[in-house]
């Protein structure tokens, strides 16, 4: 990772736990769907991360790694719930770290948005279905107190296995409508016990997971949390309550707070709520910075060097997260650090007028890119990706139309 241009982005970041990231650019999590049928890493996944590892980012955050093989977000997710996969996990971490990047494993549980038919009976904070027409989500079973205790142990076990498998740190996913985000949401979490009832109850599970993982990993292993600025959904987590969660996480001693936003019903993280601007969640990040000193990672819509340098120089955030740009140009960070012109990317998301479908199209099109890189092929350029997105859009529109036909 050599830079030919002096930039604030090239500076290392020293985390509260004492670990150091080599620069301020990070690959944020994207779901790869490149596991074997039983959830183990594949040579294609290793090739993808070796490519990204050579791409200049100081930090690589993986996509969803599931803590329970009975609860998947998508088919071919990585699953890490016992030691059998550790040899493949070590090969994966070695591939990402070979060029000097730190590699953190993102650990997750989907809760009520678990994929059908791979999850027979999803669970959630309450027995209410995700309200997104066109998505085949089953009604979940409400988690009991004993279930929650078991769930915390699963987060801890996966975190321990990640470090045993050579990963430098872990990120606990509490955004995008997954289980911990469901507990944070007043819309999804209507429990009447200590894990619901009010704002303090809604954030209790996340804080207990963080505390348990910290106790298991010790004080010197980086622990990050990915948090929604808000859910962009009426009745969901709002910015005021999210700020309170951020303060509580800082008090709990996390090392990096990654800022994002949205969920399946309102996929703000894909850009469908922000059509004409960079840094989707910067306003929230600026407000968080006034309240906490914990290192902040901002992901969503960041494309230009000038914007990245400005917000880091001003102290709004410490780390710049990039996801979809690195699905099209895997060495995007290296080009930014070298002072080269920013690569040309598609100008904006495809819009069918139904935001959940728009978000799905963006995610599916970029997932196809990851599969190309994993197969040793070059990613499609902006025009090719646009054609792929339009094709997926036609398929999605047809599916939605058929789904609304009275039966």
Automatic annotation (TrEMBL):
Entry annotated with the keyword Repeat: no
Ranges for domain NADH:flavin oxidoreductase/NADH oxidase N-terminal: 19-339
InterPro entries: Aldolase_TIM, NADH_flavin_oxidoreductase, OxRdtase_FMN_N
Any one Pfam family match given in the protein's UniProt record, by short name: Oxidored_FMN
Domain of life: Bacteria
Assigned keywords, A-Z: Flavoprotein, Oxidoreductase
Protein name in the entry: NADH:flavin oxidoreductase/NADH oxidase family protein
Organism: Rhodococcus daqingensis
């Amino acid at each position: 990772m050599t830079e030919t241009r002096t930039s604030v982005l090239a500076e290392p970041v020293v985390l509260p736990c004492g670990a150091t990231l080599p620069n301020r650019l990070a690959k944020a999590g994207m779901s790869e769907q490149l596991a074997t049928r039983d959830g183990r890493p594949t040579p294609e996944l290793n090739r993808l991360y070796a490519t990204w590892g050579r791409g200049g980012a100081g930090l690589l955050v993986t996509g969803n790694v599931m803590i329970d093989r009975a609860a998947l977000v998508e088919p071919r997710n990585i699953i890490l719930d016992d030691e059998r996969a550790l040899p493949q996990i070590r090969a994966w971490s070695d591939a990402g770290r070979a060029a000097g990047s730190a590699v953190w494993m993102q650990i997750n549980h989907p809760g009520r948005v678990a994929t059908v038919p791979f999850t027979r009976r999803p669970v959630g904070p309450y027995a209410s279905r995700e309200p997104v027409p066109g998505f085949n989500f089953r009604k979940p079973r409400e988690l009991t107190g004993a279930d929650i205790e078991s769930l915390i142990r699963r987060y801890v076990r996966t975190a321990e296995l990640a470090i045993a498998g050579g990963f430098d740190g872990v990120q606990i996913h509490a955004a995008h409508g997954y289980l911990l985000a469901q507990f944070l949401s007043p819309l999804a979490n209507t429990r009447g016990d200590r894990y619901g009832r009010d704002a303090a109850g809604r954030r209790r599970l996340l804080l207990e997971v963080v505390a348990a993982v910290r106790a298991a990993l010790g004080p010197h292993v980086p622990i990050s949390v990915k948090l929604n600025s808000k859910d962009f959904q009426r009745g969901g987590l709002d910015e005021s309550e999210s700020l309170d969660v951020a303060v509580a996480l800082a008090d709990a001693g996390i090392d990096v707070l990654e800022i994002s936003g949205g969920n399946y019903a309102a996929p703000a993280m894909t850009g469908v709520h922000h059509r004409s601007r960079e840094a989707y969640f910067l306003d929230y990040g600026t407000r968080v910075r006034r309240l906490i000193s914990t290192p902040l990672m901002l992901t969503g819509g960041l494309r230009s060097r000038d914007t990245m340098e400005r917000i880091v120089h001003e102290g709004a955030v410490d780390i710049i997260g990039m996801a979809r740009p690195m699905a099209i140009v895997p060495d995007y960070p290296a080009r930014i650090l070298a002072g080269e012109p920013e690569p040309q990317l598609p100008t904006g998301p495809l819009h069918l007028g139904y935001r959940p479908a728009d978000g799905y199209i963006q995610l599916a099109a970029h997932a196809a890119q990851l599969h190309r890189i994993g197969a040793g092929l070059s990613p499609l350029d902006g025009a090719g990706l646009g054609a792929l997105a339009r094709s997926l859009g036609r398929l999605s529109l047809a599916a939605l139309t058929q789904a609304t036909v009275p039966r």
